[in-house]
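Risk register update: the risk of archive-format incompatibility is retired. Evidence:
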Amino acid sequence: MSTYTYLAMNLSILNATTSLTAIESYNYLYPFVETNRISTHPYKRQTNKELYSVPVIYDSFKEKLAKIHLLPDNWDGYGAVSPDFVVYSNACCFLEKLDNKIMKFLEEDNILSTPYGTITFDFYVNDDLISVEIGKIQIGFFTDCTSGENMESKGEKLSLYKLPDSLVVAFKRLLENA
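Archived output:
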């Protein structure tokens, strides 16, 4: 399946389940693509002449997620499953919930696809790590801290509105070590 066919399929699914137009759907799914008109993206990012309300680094993360989303099945040559639209959408929602204080510990190279069709985000502060895995209906994480006080969650139901409490505690501990 070509990239364009795959994109068209995802746009048609989004259009069928929402009241967005095709252009609005495209801007929602792939907001990093610049156009010559005012964007209808939910963050109201306008044109280059106006102030962006979303940090520029956030755009590079969304672009990386879009690239991961377009990976074909067997992308690693060992039968890996490509992340589907739901996983991509959940990963984007996860990013939108993160505070800038936490975002500065995430690098684009640390957003990765797993062979299981999930997406991981690795946050590093000095030698401490929080690795978050996003799936279709669950979010999990583990920490690897030099202090030895590690936490993990093998999977909690994803919420579109807030991060799991245990993950918030883990991020607070990470920020204390910054």
